[in-house]
Amino acid sequence: MGGNEELARRFEEHRPHLRAVAYRMLGSLAESEDAVQEAWIRLSRSDTGAVENLGGWLTTVVGRLCLDMLRSRTTRREDPLHGEDGRVRLPDPVVSRADGLDPEQEVLLADSVGIALMVVLETLTPAERLAFVLHDLFTVPFDEIAPVLGRGAAATRQLASRARRRVQGAVPSPAPDRERLRAIVDAFLSASRGGDFEALMALLDPDVVARSDGGALRPGLVRRGAAEVASQAVTFARFAEAAHPVLVNGLPGVLAMAEGRALSVMAFTVRDGRITALDILTDLERLARLDPVALGAA
Questions:
Q1: Is pLDDT at 290 greater than 60 in this prediction?
Q2: Residues 127 and 35 occupy one common structural domain
């Protein structure tokens, strides 16, 4: 096997890990693939003879690429998660069949990377996100992250600590009971279909937040509070009527279909038996990438 073929083989061994790093950094499946492919191009053009830890080298390269991509978003519509102008940009959901993840998705979503975590990561600064993702999620030492950021190890540690406090305050504890979560999702759909406002109120946390991302052609919406979210759920009962059970980032969620195409993907965040967040993707461009047949929804 030639040198380039051997290098390509070694890179492919690391590709699933690199995609996982990039997804947590960018929240975009397509951009994650772009970052990983660019890492391969840089590797193929580099002298790797002195590289002792190829996986570590590639991880920091992908981290640097993602950092640059995040910083470049400042002039693009998806920069804010939900800014003062009302725009909403949710991270790409990883949608799977209700009966489980495929092996590639299992690697991508290791460590319970639910939508709740991805939403919080979207609110961090690029530097905070890099420090937290590489250190806390992938155990990269601070002294290896610091040069990527152009800061000292102590300053990088502070960035990760600040990000960690944000994450811990907003993301439910891991190890959720999927069957219990599915029962809550099903009860929410049943109440929505029946227009049962009181049942919806019983399922929703008083401070629940519902975010909807319709892409470039539809306005994004943010609803807060159980009464407002329950009213919205009754209004859009047609989505509940067309609902199919799926996993969204490994947790029970809903894919709404009509005439063979996806209308929406809904992710649920549950704490102490009540829904604390609803994240709804209605962006037709991104929904068009889903395969309803593969998801068991067609």
A1: yes
A2: yes
